[in-house]
Amino acid sequence: MNINFYLERPNKKELCLVYVFVRGLDPSNHRNAIKIKTYVEIPASAWNSNKQQIRSSFKDYQFHNSILEDYKLRTIETINTFKDENPFIEFTNLRDKVKQIVQKNETVFKKIIPEDVKISRDFFDVLDLYIKSKGDVVGKTTIKRYVVIKNHLIKFANSNKLNLTIDSFTNEISDKLIKYFLKEKHLNNTISRSLKQIKTLLIWANKRGYKVEINDEAFRFLKYDSDIIYLTDNEIKLIEDIDLSERPALDKIKDLFIFQLHTGQRFGDVQSLKFDQVVDYYWNMRTEKTQVVNKIPLSNRALNIIEKYKSLNQLPRISSQKMNENIKEICKLAGIDTLVTITSYRGSQKIVEVKPKYLLISSHNAKKSFVTKAINSGIDLSTVMNLTGNKDPKTLKRYYEIMDKTKKSAIAEMFN
Question: Considering the entire predicted model, what is its pTM?
Answer without folding.
Answer: 0.66
